[in-house]
Write a structure and sequence with these properties.
With 427 residues, this protein is of the alpha+beta class. It is 40% helix and 18% strand. Strands 1, 2, 3, 4, 5 and 6 form a 6-stranded antiparallel β-sheet that branches. Strands 7-8-11-10-9 form a 5-stranded antiparallel β-sheet, with helices on both faces. The structure holds zinc ion. Residues 1-26 are annotated as: Disordered.
Length: 427
């Protein structure tokens, strides 16, 4: 690809040149209003004269994004420390932009711009879409799938940016993201102890336990496990949740291998209530035992038996029924025809303790923390903690809107049962 001439006359169509370089803005049509400073956070519709940049780096960065959005490739005509002149890479196309240092404004200013292309814009090749550009743009995607295949990444870039990239660009992009992530993951582990101390200081009496191993020849201990149960969450569970918990484990998705184990309870409105979480090296009987031991002492589960059953009460009620007129035969008849293990919660076997027969609470929580599971360890814990705390606040505020003393889900449930029981008949 070539280009015809390096410089265009300001008399060319679409060309506006600020010849003075430092002159006051005087033409409302040619120059936009007073604040022409480039803002990296807002998408630039188009370049215009007198647009100001803090440095040439941000100008070049914007130019790459702009060329991707508009679907054309550009090439440098001049690129030194103080000025950058670029033109459309298509042969014969007049599109051109020139930005250089303006000593009066103490900024880099866009001094020449020919906005119209004489080529057919819409190319799918852009050499400026480098590994770095892809790494920035698709950081979260590559972070989520560090082993993504080049063909999948290429397809994604093609779909989102409309640009074809090579395998080499894909590899570079992945390498850049992984380098950044490795650094971040390493830094997180280095300050994990400080994070634990901070958590404990902010939430006294919380259980935060870290297990690490020392290995000969290594300066730092190697992280093995961590268990977190924060005091406000634990108290919330003990005070207002049902005596049912769900346990589950899922893989960490980031660079570090390992599992996150979690306990999710059920609140008074039959919604999930995450209680505690841990990161362990692997999902094994030993790691689960370690986790449950901590949990058992935190939630004062004891041996777990009798936690959600009340056989004594049930037997007392049956005795009272026996005391009624013809009661004994009714009770015997009842127990014979409908074994108590089949209809009384207190006599259910050890597996089933309430109507929750699946582990959807945990699956839901799994889904919520999906994104966090890609992140470095402290960032992940912070995401989870913030989610749980915010959730509690939101749910507490919602209780103010309740129309009765129990939650809307419970009211609906009672209503459903009431409607069903309306068809019953006592003979
Ligand atoms: Zn062009």
């Amino acid at each position: 690809m070539g280009y015809d001439s390096d410089y265009l006359d300001s008399s060319d169509p679409g060309s506006y040149e600020d010849k003075s370089g430092e002159s006051e803005v005087d033409d409302a049509k040619r120059y936009k209003a007073s604040n022409n400073c480039y803002c990296p956070n807002t998408q630039l519709e188009d370049f215009y004269l007198d647009l100001r940049f803090d440095d040439l780096k941000s100008f070049k960065h914007e130019l790459v994004q702009f060329s991707i959005r508009k679907g054309f490739a550009f090439q440098y005509v001049k690129n030194d420390g103080t000025r950058v002149r670029e033109k459309c890479a298509a042969k014969g196309c007049k599109w051109l932009v020139f930005c250089s240092w303006c000593s009066g404004k103490k900024m880099h200013v866009l001094k020449k711009y020919i906005a119209e292309h004489s080529c057919l814009v819409g190319t799918s090749k852009n050499r400026r879409v480098t590994g770095k550009v892809i790494a920035n743009r698709f950081f979260d995607v590559i972070n989520g799938m560090p082993f993504i295949k080049p063909r999948h990444l290429k397809a994604m870039v093609r779909k989102e940016l409309g640009v074809f990239i090579s395998d080499k660009v894909c590899r570079n992009a992945k390498a850049i993201v992984l380098r950044k992530l490795k650094k971040q993951f390493k830094e997180d582990f280095l300050v994990l102890n400080s994070y634990v101390l901070e958590l404990k200081e902010a939430n006294p009496e919380s259980t935060v336990t870290v297990v690490s191993k020392r290995q000969e020849g290594l300066q730092y201990p190697i992280f093995q496990r961590i268990y977190i149960c924060l005091i406000p969450i634990r108290e919330g569970f003990m005070a207002g949740c049902r005596n049912i918990i769900g346990l589950d484990g899922c893989f960490l998705k980031g660079l570090v291998k390992g599992m996150i184990l979690m306990v999710v309870g059920r609140d008074g409105n039959n919604q999930m209530f995450p209680v505690a979480w841990a990161v362990v090296e692997n999902e094994t009987t030993e790691s689960w035992v370690w986790f449950i031991q901590h949990l058992s002492s935190d939630l004062r589960l004891g041996d777990g038996l009798g936690w959600s059953t009340n056989k004594v009460d049930m037997l007392m009620h049956l005795d009272r029924m026996r005391g009624l007129k013809r009661g004994t035969s009714v009770v015997e008849d009842l127990l014979e025809n409908w074994p108590i293990e089949g209809w009384c919660c207190a006599f259910f076997n050890d597996v089933l303790k309430c109507e929750v027969i699946d582990n959807n609470m945990c699956e839901t929580f799994n889904g919520v923390i999906l994104e966090a599971r890609h992140k470095a360890i402290i960032t992940m814990f912070e995401d989870i903690r913030q989610y749980c705390i915010t959730r509690i606040v939101v749910k507490r505020e919602n209780t103010g809107k309740w129309k009765s003393s129990c939650g809307p889900r419970i009211c609906a449930r009672i209503e459903k049962e009431r409607a069903k029981s309306g068809k019953w008949q006592v003979e």
